[in-house]
Predict the structure of Protease HtpX homolog.
Amino acid sequence: MAKRIFLFILTNILVIVTIGIVLSVLGVGNYRTAAGGIDLGTLLAFSAVVGFTGAFISLLMSRWMAKMMMGVQVLNPDKSLSAAQRDLVERVHRLSRAAGIRVMPEVGIYRSPEVNAFATGPSKNRSLVAVSTGLLEEMDDDAIEGVLAHEVAHIANGDMVTMTLLQGVVNTFVVFLARIAAWAVSRVVREDMAPIVHFIAVIVFQIAFSILGSIVVFAYSRYREYHADNGGADLAGKDKMIHALRSLQAYSQRIRDDQTAVATLKINGKKGAALFSTHPDLNDRIARLEAR
């Protein structure tokens, strides 16, 4: 899932910055007063429109961006597949039907040595579950079942849509605060330089505030992981879900000195990176499942 969140946030930042540049060039959304100040009400309305538009565009692009950036090979069940590929598709579809999903997710594989999997898409009926070749090579059948159930639970829970609504709120504040900060900066330079300084400052502050705003999104992501764990336990069985998490722990232990290896459900043992982690500690997740 970590891939899903990072891809969504990266796409969102790019979309928001692009929208801001286009609107500035076109002169749309004038929130400046005749005296050179800011009409806060108009700016807030403008920020909300831009913020939620950017979030929903990012959502609509999420499945396409994931395929393109990760090089996902979508497995077509109507075409010739290997036994392992067909088994993967059938597992995802079986779990999806059990979760009440009506339109089966696309299932894909991408080449990567890291143990990873993610689910994405704009809706339950237009979703994608992708797994890395590393996951298929490293994990046994029960662990794979638990991981797939976890990802299907994200789809069934509608996590991408709720994440988009939260991102829309965050975007609103990002756009709002970036323009206030840019206005303040433009007031301390020469009058002839103010427009270009304001234009550049908006872009810089928007990117900076978007990164800070992602802390809120990451916190929500960590909260949703517990729900996906519970959903995965309901679909595949608690024992398989716990086994999947323990398998990830074992894998993480083996590659702890390799900083580029990040496991499927975002294992990151660095305390300092907690705010930017999309997933909670595995020990805590396992303990909560065992206490069910």
Remarks:
- The two ends are 23 Å apart (CA to CA).
- Residues 259-272 have pLDDT under 50 and may be disordered.
- The chain has nine helices and four strands.
- The longest strand covers residues 117-123.
